[in-house]
Amino acid sequence: MTEELRIPAAMMREMIEHALVERPLESCGLVAGRAGRPLRFYPTRNADQSPVRYSIHPEDLLHATLDIERRCEDLWAIFHSHPQSEAYPSHTDIRLAFYPESIYLIASLLHPEQPVLRGYRILGQDVRELAIRFE
Hints:
Layout: E1 4-7, H1 9-22, E2 28-34, E3 37-44, H2 58-70, E4 74-82, H3 91-95, E5 103-108, E6 116-123, E7 126-134
Parallel strand pairs: 1-7, 4-5
Antiparallel strand pairs: 2-3, 2-4, 5-6, 6-7
C-alpha cells in the first residue's frame, strides 16, 4: 500500500513560487504539520548558494524551528528544488537525509512552465516515492 500525501494546492504553489524565484540556485524550506497533515510552509535561504546542493541557512532554521515548537507542531517535510534535473533524490540528497521521520519534497524545474513536485521517504539508501494529492 502506497502512502498518500495530501498537500494543500496553495502550499504547493508557495513551494513552486519559492523555487522559481531562487532559480538557478536550489531553493529550500520546511513544512510544519500536525497529526500527519501539512499546515504551513517556511521558505528558507540556501546557505550553500548552489545550483546543485542546499543547506538551510542557520538563522532561517532557528526561526522556523522555534515557530514550529511554539505552535506545538512537528517538522512534517523538508523541501528543496532541482533547477536542472528531475524531482528525484540525488546521491547527495540521500547521503544527507538525516531525518528519516520526515518527508522529503523535491520540486523539479527542468521544465519551468510545468514544474513537478514529488515526495519521498528516505531511510538509509532506501528511497520510496509517495503519492501526492493536491487539495
